[in-house]
Amino acid sequence: MGEKFSNRNYLHKRHRLSHQQIDKILGEESGTKYIEEKRKLLNFTMEFLKICELLDNCKIPFISLKGPALSYRIYGDPAVRISHDIDLLIDKEKIDDVLQALLNTGFSLTKGVVWPENPAQRELILESVHHISLTNSNKNITLEIHWTLMQGVPVTQERLKQIVSENTQTIELAGRRIRTLSPDLEVLFLMIHGSRHGWSRLKWLIDLKEYNYELTNIEGFNKLAREFKAGRIIAQTNHLLESIFAVETPFRGDNKIPGLFKNYPVKSMNSEVKEISSIKEMLNGIFYRLFMFKDLGYRAKLISSLFLRNGDLEEIDSKSKLAYFFYRPYSIIKRRVLNDFITFRPLKLF
């Protein structure tokens, strides 16, 4: 894996792997040395369960994505994986109810995130992104409310919603019943999620290395993979797992994948994570994502999605999607090139 990938501190800070996971990777036994991390992960799990209880009491159905529920299914322990936030998939008609419940319990919209009263602006958000985030600063917890499993995939949102409804399961965690994705859809989701982010965190690949594939059904997975046209992503996942850990998933993808699909993740894993990417890095990322699926419709949707950013809704006041499409290039230049030199005021367009 290279010298850096044998460095505990690097794996922990750069790739967000817990010391329990790192012990397994390095073949070490740290014992109680990192007990404080375990305490924090257990506390995070407790807060996750409190949110689940709150939504259950409000009769708001949800699906847990990743997080403590995934850790529990992989390791038999909800406090092994480090989760940056809590991800819940909720029907978009219930978003206002969820916000009301959470805002009354110490959460607020994360800085830069808007949930506008304007119906036209709200519809733009629902069509263009897949979640909004809230933060409880007192507990240092971020919660992402997803209204779709994924945006910009080679299936329609209507079909994706149906696929999700047909591929869920219920697990029991600490005496609470929690709905999650079925193993087949979950594995595919983890592959697509990791690939979309260029596998910049090794933790996403570790999830697929450690996953219990006996829970999956090859025929069921392959059916989903064909519908999502995910052959290239499956092959990429296996290539990375084999080259780094000398293992593969039981699933087969395309026989050949572009060199970019092999090289970009390696560079991404080895580079430092930046809060704001350069214009060149942003364009390289877009070019990489264009090759994720062999589907022209996907590529058109990807390009279209580049023209709206949640924060832009605070900058301009318009009911026209076209206004935001025209504003987006200006927004990028403002934030990445001119931000240090000019103070901008919100604009009123159309």
Kindly describe this structure.
This protein is of the alpha/beta class and 350 residues long. Among the domains are: 61-70 and 82-181, no CATH class; 183-280. Helices cover 51% and strands 11% of the residues. It is built from 16 helices and nine strands. It has helices at residues 8-13, 19-26, 35-57, 67-75, 95-103, 119-128, 157-166, 183-196, 202-210, 218-228, 231-245, 259-270, 279-289, 296-305, 312-315, 321-338, and strands at 63-65, 86-89, 108-109, 131-136, 141-146, 168-173, 176-181, 316-317, 347-348. Strand 4 (131-136) and strand 5 form a beta hairpin. The longest helix has 23 residues, at 35-57. The model is unreliable at 339-350 (pLDDT under 50).
What's the number of helices?
A: 16
User: How does the major sheet shape up?
Assistant: 5 strands, mixed
- The number of strands is 9
Alpha-beta content class: alpha/beta
Q: Unreliable segments (pLDDT under 50, ≥5 consecutive)?
A: 339-350
Q: How would you spell out the order of helices and strands?
A: HHHEHEHEHEEHEEHHHHHHHHEHE
- End-to-end C-alpha gap: 54 Å
Helix content class: 40-55%
Strand content: 5-15%
Radius of gyration from CA coordinates: 21 Å
Mean pLDDT: 89
Form type: globular
Strand numbers in spatial order across the main sheet? 1-2-5-4-3
